Amino acid sequence: MSHEDDPLEHERASWQPSPGLAVAVTDPVQNPELPQHRERVTDSDPAAMKRAVRTVYTLFYLSVAGSIWAIAAYMLFPIEDGQPVAIRNNNLFIGLGIALALLALGIGAIHWSKAIMSDKEYIEPRHATRGRDTTREAAVEAFALANEESGFGRRAVIRNSLIAAVVASIAPGITLFRGLAPEDTPERPNAGNPVYLLSHTMWKEGSRLAHDPSGTPIKASDVTLGSAFHVIPEDLAAISHSEGYLEQKAKAIVLLMRLPQDQLHPSPGKEDWAYDGIVAYSKVCTHVGCPVALYEQQTHHLLCPCHQSQFDITHEAAVIFGPAARPLPQLPITVDSEGYLVARSDFHEPVGPSFWERH
């Protein structure tokens, strides 16, 4: 069909607007430009600027005082006796100090940005050119201008008080970590030796294996194929929380499983560490100490949920996947005259993360 024969083209060519019909013509969107700048009180009144500066560095020094108080409260309100009142006072006064330090630091920084730093509006032109010498020089100029407008380099009192507040705010945290590294004392000669502490648990020859948390002893006949028990020493129930119940439990917790005997592959010297296919392994992962609590009955694998380390129970809990560096320590077990499962001895190696053994 030719162009002349197309009725649509003919209709378009012949169309004319009606005399009374208004045709709107859309103009391009106009740039509204920046609104008129409104000066703050501190911009026009030097006395107000001085008050704002004093307020900011006072808040920063108040933050320093809060950090110092948190450190002092750590020493003034110790919790060595484990009494609820001591723990409450320790947490209360340390928390108040840290809260004051961070709150004053935050309010001071906000007030500085709102009342002292330059608040003029700027337009930054965008373009595709990057990396030229002129671009680098412009970047340096921009940083220099930002430093001048913020007053960080020019207002020494604010700068120094801010640095002091930031540095001091870290000190309470460092002080609190001090409690995680006890020192040796005559009463506890190896309190600062983690390898020694993790090499000795509550397990000893004859200690009965008991359910966690009830403390009910476990008979070998109670452990069926494919089952898994969370186990603690029976003697643990006699220890109160103030005497270190949680600390002892954290080291001695064990997983107990039963496999067909022909699927176990003990190394020389460990043939009698299991009893009738029943094996016991530390529940503390050798990566960073998370509780290994997931047992796959079909594959006989233990899984740590924190970082997915997997251990093969059929081969002495050898690491088959994940970041763990060594197998889970095995607890040698047997039965007593009444048929209860008992430990042959303590673990033969430290429990927990392997990094404790690094020199």
Automatic annotation (TrEMBL):
Q: Which residues form the Rieske domain?
A: 276-342
InterPro entries per UniProt? QcrA_N, Rieske_2Fe-2S, Rieske_2Fe-2S_sf, Rieske_Fe-S_prot, Rieske_Fe-S_prot_C
**Per the record, where are the segments of Basic and acidic residues compositional bias?**
1-13
Q: Where is this region: Disordered?
A: 1-21
Q: Which cofactor does it need?
A: [2Fe-2S] cluster
Task: Indicate yes or no for the key word ATP-binding.
Answer: no
Where in the sequence is the signal peptide annotated? none
- Membrane topology type, per the record? Multi-pass membrane protein
Task: Write down a Pfam family by its short name.
Answer: QcrA_N
Q: According to its UniProt record, which protein family does this protein belong to? A: Belongs to the Rieske iron-sulfur protein family.
Q: What does this protein do?
A: Iron-sulfur subunit of the cytochrome bc1 complex, an essential component of the respiratory electron transport chain required for ATP synthesis. The bc1 complex catalyzes the oxidation of menaquinol and the reduction of cytochrome c in the respiratory chain. The bc1 complex operates through a Q-cycle mechanism that couples electron transfer to generation of the proton gradient that drives ATP synthesis.
| This protein's name | Cytochrome bc1 complex Rieske iron-sulfur subunit
Q: Which organism is it from?
A: Microbacterium rhizosphaerae
